[in-house]
Design brief:
19 strands, alpha+beta, D-Maltodextrin-Binding Protein, domain 2, about 600 residues, seven-stranded mixed sheet
Length: about 600
């Protein structure tokens, strides 16, 4: 029965169902990485709190960093603008699961747009009037910050890349508005809503600007010049687990519009994924990434290069006549020689291909055999470690501290390290909870900088060949999102592992998951042990109460005044005051209220009776 239980636990660990699995959400940091973290971290925390066994964290990235992160399989989900999402959808097969809802005062918006504007004193009243003028924008790849405006210019027969002077200012959009307001640019284009937001913050006067190609769309409150397009999508990578993606989608759809995560993101929650086909159409029309420029047609090529085609054709036919004469004289000799060469090359290629196939097959078999052997070793070590831990858990002759010490020693043996240290983290200090071996003397933590790094990154850190330690491992333990304690394992430079030791390396997936699982149990045990000790310390304060003091305390907990206590106990009020003062002194309570709270928390009367 027990081997089946062990097998079930191992399969759960390998399938990613263990506690504390971390998932990365890549976010386009269009306005700086710090701003992206501040805006979207509450959303990641919301997902972590709502989905059991999963930890989500935000990874702010630039456009180039997105490509590297996806190619390295470092991301599980992405949150980006529609134009960038379409590129990722075509190149990597990402799939949207929900769409962000933005907010304008009390109105919830599913779509956004862009606005093309100029200063009211510029004399420009149409898009066509901007030919030869300067246009300020974010960048050529910005969907809402340039590409939508470029499409509107093309609809007005204006090639913005050829007919205008472009001033690329990047983010934030406010720099583009200021450039137009200060006369450094004749016109600008930004995401719809920027002008209204700056006017609300009294940074500009909205009456100083004129919108070019203004549109009116029912339900959309902002000044805008282009059509409406769906807001930012939240998408999953192809390798991301489908069941997890469904949980994430449902959790985001259940987010309340007035929740802290929605408000911090500047929106009103999430909705079902919208249709992003219009975004594809825009990028196809502009021949922008991920859609390359359309190839020139044969008729266009002939029309453009007619003179050169005639010249090349004449030279070609002249050379062709010369070649025909040369080929006629040497045709038979060449055909025979080529036939022999082709036959020899085919034989060589056939031999080489079969040799390469055999070598590749042999190498693949060797790798597979080694992988199976290594997997069996890791599995066997994990089973023995779990068996050892089970034997500790079922023992009735050990108290909670002894079990904790035995678990720490067992994990140290499993990892093959010289020392193991479990320390709790209170305030800014570490306090030792358990150490293995028991006679080892060391301060907590073993390596302060790496212990803090593990806590900040919320993950296991493993290092080798440090100045003091040949091998070091730090595993932070979080209970309900709060740091409980830190597991540390280390081997000194002089420590020699046993010859033939099969202790697993911490970078094996099974070892990491087992350590995570054990850390959660140790964290709970440490918390319960601290609570037991606190309760025992609290109960000791009431051990030396006299019978009369106990009677006074019981009446005090019932809310009786000094006079009522004196009447019930047949004592004078001065005697009652004396007993109350003695109670405060013996229990170290600062007031009667604190005294009553201590007695309630310690269940003092249940213990006395």
């Amino acid at each position: 029965m027990f081997p089946r239980l062990l097998l079930t636990i191992i399969l759960l660990l390998l399938s990613g169902q263990a506690f504390g699995v971390s998932y990365a959400i890549g976010v386009l940091a269009y306005n700086g990485k710090q701003q992206a973290l501040e805006r979207w971290k509450p959303t990641a925390d919301y997902l972590s709190s709502e989905i059991n066994g999963a930890e989500f964290h935000i990874v702010p990235l630039t456009l180039d960093e997105f490509l590297h992160a996806i190619n390295k399989d470092e991301l599980d989900f992405v949150l980006t603008n529609p134009g960038h999402y379409v590129r990722l959808e075509v190149q990597f097969g990402v799939t949207r699961i929900v769409t962000f809802l933005s907010r304008h005062q009390d109105r919830v918006l599913k779509h956004f747009s862009s606005v093309i504007f100029t200063h009211k004193d510029s004399g420009i009243v149409s898009l066509h009037g901007l030919k030869g003028r300067t246009l300020a924008a974010v960048s050529e790849d910005a969907f809402g910050g340039f590409q939508l405006a470029r499409l509107e210019f093309e609809n007005s027969a204006v090639d913005v890349l050829r007919d205008m002077k472009l001033l690329w200012l990047g983010f934030p959009h406010a720099d583009i508005v200021n450039a137009v307001n200060e006369g450094r640019a004749d016109a600008g284009t930004v995401r719809a809503g920027i002008l209204e937001r700056m006017a609300a913050e009294q940074l500009i006067d909205l009456d100083d600007f004129r919108v070019l190609g203004a549109r009116q769309d029912e339900g959309f409150p902002y000044l805008h010049s282009s059509g409406l397009f769906p807001e930012w999508p939240f998408a999953k990578l192809p390798r991301t687990d489908t069941a997890l993606s469904k949980k994430v989608a449902v959790t985001l759809l259940e987010m309340q519009a007035d929740s802290p995560a929605a408000l911090q993101a500047g929106g009103a929650g999430w909705t079902i994924p919208l249709n992003y086909a219009p975004v594809h159409d825009v990028l196809r029309r502009l021949q922008a990434e991920p859609y390359p420029a359309t190839r020139i047609t044969a008729s266009q090529f002939v029309e453009t290069y007619r003179g050169w085609i005639g010249l090349v054709a004449g030279m070609f036919f002249a050379l062709l006549l010369i070649l025909l004469r040369l080929l006629g004289a040497n045709r038979e000799l060449t055909e025979t020689r080529n036939a022999l060469q082709d036959h020899r090359l085919k034989l060589e290629d056939t031999v080489q291909e079969r040799t390469d196939d055999l070598l590749q097959t042999n190498a693949a078999l060797q790798i597979e055999i080694a992988s199976h052997i290594e997997a069996e070793k890791i599995m066997d070590a994990g089973c023995r470690a779990l068996q050892s831990l089970h034997d500790i858990f079922v023992r009735d002759d050990l108290d909670r501290q002894q079990k904790l010490n035995s678990v720490v020693d067992s994990v140290r043996t499993y990892l093959g390290t010289e020392f193991a240290l479990l320390s709790s983290f209170k305030g800014e200090t570490f306090e030792i909870c358990s150490v293995s071996p028991l006679n080892a003397s060391s301060g907590a933590p073993l390596v302060l900088s790496l212990a803090r790094q593990a806590i900040e990154e919320r993950q296991i850190i493993s290092r080798e060949n440090l100045p003091e330690w040949r091998r070091y491992i730090a595993s932070p333990v979080f209970i309900r999102g709060h740091l409980c304690c830190v597991f540390e394992f280390a081997s000194s430079l002089q420590y020699q592992e046993e010859e033939g030791s099969d202790s697993p390396r911490i970078n094996s997936e099974l070892c990491t998951r087992i350590l995570n699982l054990i850390s959660q149990w140790v964290g709970n045990e440490t918390t319960l042990l601290a609570e037991e000790r606190m309760h025992q310390d609290m109960h000791k304060r009431f051990e030396h109460l006299s019978r009369r003091e106990t009677e006074v305390l019981e009446l005090l907990m019932q809310g009786d005044s000094t006079k009522i206590m004196a009447r019930k106990l047949g004592l004078s009020t001065k005697t009652i005051e004396m007993h109350r003062a003695s109670l405060l002194r013996k229990t170290a309570a600062k007031s009667s209220t604190e005294l009553v709270q201590l007695a309630v928390n310690a269940n003092i009367f249940q213990g006395i009776q």
